[in-house]
Amino acid sequence: MNKPRIPIALQQAVMRCLREKLQLARRHFAVEFPEPSIAYQQRGT
């Protein structure tokens, strides 16, 4: 059975938003936070 795929444009939008919020947190706390990795695989049903 084929798994539904997340559109590339949506993945890019999520990463763009994540990077913006991460940069905001870095400036606010003056701490370097590592960029998390995101997996777009559904788990469970």
Report on this structure.
- With 45 residues, this protein is mainly alpha-helical.
- The chain has a domain at 7-32.
- 49% of the residues lie in helices and 0% in strands.
- It is built from one helix and no strands.
- It has one helix at residues 8-29.
- It starts with 7 loop residues before the first helix and ends in a 16-residue tail after the last helix.
- 0% of the residues are buried.
- The model has no long low-confidence stretch (mean pLDDT 90).
Describe the structure using short key phrases.
single chain; 45 residues; 1 helix
Determine Rg (CA atoms, Å): 14 Å
Percent of residues in helices comes to: 40-55%
| DSSP, total strands | 0
Helix segment count? 1
In angstroms, what separates the terminal alpha carbons? 13 Å
Global mean pLDDT: 90
Structural class by helix and strand composition: mainly alpha
Q: How much of the residues is beta strand, in percent?
A: under 5%
Tell me, briefly, the overall form.
elongated
List SSEs in N-to-C order. Answer: H
Low-confidence stretches: none
Tell me the major beta sheet.
none
Write the layout of secondary structure elements.
Layout: H1 8-29
Protein name: SprT family protein
Organism: Serratia marcescens
